[in-house]
What does this fold into?
Amino acid sequence: MRQSSNLIPTLREVPADAELKSHQLLLRAGFMRQNASGIYSFLPLGYRVLRKVEQIVREEMDRAGSVELLMPALQQAELWQESGRWYSYGPELMRMRDRHNREFALGPTHEEVITSLVRDEVKSYKRLPLNLYQIQTKFRDEKRPRFGLLRGREFVMKDAYSFHASKESLDDTYNKMYEAYSRIFERCGLDFRAVIADSGAIGGKDTHEFMVLSDVGEDTIAYSDTSSYAANIEMAAVTATYNKENVPAETLEKVETPTQKSIEEVSAFLNVEASKCIKSLLFKVDDRFVLVLVRGDHEVNDIKVKNYFEASVVELASVEETKEIMGCEVGFLGPISVSEKVEIVADHAVQAMVNAVAGANEAGYHYKNVNPDRDFHAVYTDIRFIQEGDPSPDGQGVIKFAKGIEVGHVFKLGTKYSEALEATYLDENGRTQPMIMGCYGIGVSRTVAAIAEQFNDENGLVWPVAVAPYHIHLIPINMKSEEQKELGEKLYKDLLGKGYEVLMDDRAERPGVKFADSDLIGIPVRVTIGKRAAEGIVEVKVRNTGESMEVSVDELTNTLSSLLEVK
It folds into this structure.
């Protein structure tokens, strides 16, 4: 491709609203442009990278036995109503009506559509297992689109769905998908981890997220410093043990704390450590209220609360609800003399506390010398976020934290959707059974951004060979020089003929502009045709190392072959 006839609008200045390096560089290097908040056009270079990632995904999905199809982005509301998600998915679901006033949604995912499709076409166990995938644009009305392609309202996703007659069959496919995902992200050159995860709005159990390690990641990974254990911080189990301090329980005492509400304020005012305070938070769990207790130096994990109660929705009670249920405002809540209508669930660490501080359920007051089981009763479970330094749940080493960008997620859905949409089959004995399902997603456009986030330097993008928009950036320095122009044309045709993808900068620009754009775009190898063109000598520069060498035209193919070998 000749650069003069391509659309590569590079920018010298960093766009003001682009926070992340990947967002800045993909805009500056002319890979994409924003059309509206969270909505982007892929320009020619960006689209080539997107297609490279898609092709890797497609090859590995085919290799794993999944079959490609394409479903509509516009989905009937009735299907979502059958599954129940029309009402529970939330405002991220883009809803609309057609001219006949029929309701539709722009698909953020396709569990309902694929389940209804297989329900209508597959009736016997002899047709199972079945594994189907698509690569398609998805839509989610994000409240705060940000970080470019990492959190948009329109994005490209690969979603696969498997259907089974047994859990063993699902396990086998799940493992194949896990291995396929690992190969996909390895081929993209990414530094990633597969971590234990929560299934979120999709539902199901036994899930893993594939996280690209990055300091700008929105997710926190808890991992062992001595083993392969890794989990999203939301799902990391706390296995720490707690021993009660061997001191006598003192008399319960109500003390005035006029304006002290937070743990930090209360602990400072009463001159006690935060770990000696009980943090009390009122949650609305579906249609009931639950008072959740953790130690003052710990944080409530609402995902664990949700999973403990097997709830659909968990959220903090509003100010009004808190006053109505507990009789006081947030900041003075505590577990003593709580209405029987309110369940109390506490973290294991709370059970070991002695002579603690807790809210008195009265504005301006706290209790001192609060002792669990004497002053209040609760159900104890693991309900807090794991912390760095805690024991690793697998019993090996201690926990450390890293940031990650989620690029893939695999789920065991079970029968959640097949039962709701009545996707059944006849087993060997002629009995009707619900299909057992799995779900496997990769954010394709998000993966492009994750690669850009990991592969860049102070001069621009540094694409791995497997996903680079072109293999070679061919740059005749002076297009007015007949020798350079002639050699450039010859090399361009020869390299294309040998199967290389070549971008030739045939623009009438100054050398400095050409080199700056080349570094910004980040093509793996640059071949510069300069003053030694008449001698048949060119300069070859490797983008990721900065190494440069002069090479004769006769040796160029061998040199490029070794530099562009995909590991």
